[in-house]
Each structure stands twice: as structure tokens, then as C-alpha cells.
């Protein structure tokens, strides 16, 4: 017999405080072709509105090479922009 563990209300609150939301529009239209890694990175960027590449590497666990690939993909889609070494979300995605 298997030992089944259930999430408690405390567990759910902890999960809620340590999670972020991925916008639904990323799964339809022209954004559908964006890689899953880029979609998750975009959700992480939205949480704070701007990031330095080093902070994204630390927080996401992605390699710097993958971060740069995702940044290029998200920039091409018009979802983020680079200013010096900071990455920020654009207002364009809010009109979708």
C-alpha cells in the first residue's frame, strides 16, 4: 500500500508565495511559437518588470547562453527590450 501525502493549506500558501503566473496569450497566436524556456523567463521578468542578465541566470537556473537565446526570442517578439545591461518588459504585450 502506498503512503499518500496531501498538501495542507499552509503548503498551498507557501507555493502561492513562491510562484509566478505565465500569461495565457503566450500560448496562442504568433506567441505560440515561442519556446517554453522563453515563456517562463518572460513570466519571471514580468514579476519585477526589469532584470540584469546575471540576476536572471541566478534566479532561473538557466545558463547565460540560454538566457541570451531567450532574450533574443522575446525581443524579436516585441515582449521585452534591452537597455544597457537591463531587460524590461514592454507595454506591447498588454495590448494583446
Task: Walk me through this protein's architecture.
A three-stranded antiparallel sheet has the order 1-3-2. It is 45% helix and 11% strand. The longest helix has 13 residues, at 36-48. With 96 residues, it is α+β, with helices and mostly antiparallel strands. The model has no long low-confidence stretch (mean pLDDT 82).
Percentage of residues in helical conformation: 40-55%
Cα Rg:
16 Å
Biggest sheet: strands side by side, in what order? 1-3-2
Largest sheet: 3 strands, antiparallel
Question: How many β-strand runs?
Answer: 3
Q: Number of helix segments?
A: 4
Quickly give the structural class: alpha+beta
The proportion of strand residues reads: 5-15%
Arithmetic mean of pLDDT: 82
What is the helix/strand order?
HHEHHEE
Provide the low-confidence segments as ranges.
none
Shape: elongated
Distance between the terminal alpha carbons, to the nearest Å? 50 Å
Key features of this structure:
alpha+beta, three-stranded antiparallel β-sheet, 45% helix, 3 strands, 96 residues, single chain
How is the topology of this model organized?
Blueprint: H1 9-17, H2 36-48, E1 50-52, H3 53-60, H4 64-76, E2 80-83, E3 86-89
Antiparallel strand pairs: 1-3, 2-3
Helix pairs in contact: 2-4
How is this structure best summarized?
The chain is α+β, with helices and mostly antiparallel strands and 96 residues long. It has helices spanning 9-17, 36-48, 53-60, 64-76; strands spanning 50-52, 80-83, 86-89. A hairpin with a 2-residue loop joins β2 and β3 (86-89).
Amino acid at each position: 500500500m502506498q503512503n499518500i501525502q496531501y498538501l495542507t493549506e499552509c503548503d498551498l500558501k507557501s507555493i502561492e508565495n513562491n510562484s509566478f503566473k505565465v500569461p495565457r496569450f503566450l500560448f496562442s497566436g504568433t506567441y505560440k511559437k515561442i519556446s517554453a524556456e522563453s515563456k517562463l523567463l518572460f513570466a519571471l521578468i514580468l514579476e519585477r518588470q526589469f532584470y540584469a542578465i546575471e540576476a536572471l541566470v541566478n534566479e532561473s537556473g538557466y545558463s547565460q547562453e540560454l538566457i541570451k537565446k531567450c532574450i533574443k526570442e522575446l525581443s524579436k517578439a516585441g515582449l521585452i527590450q534591452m537597455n544597457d545591461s537591463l531587460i524590461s518588459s514592454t507595454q506591447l504585450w498588454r495590448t494583446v
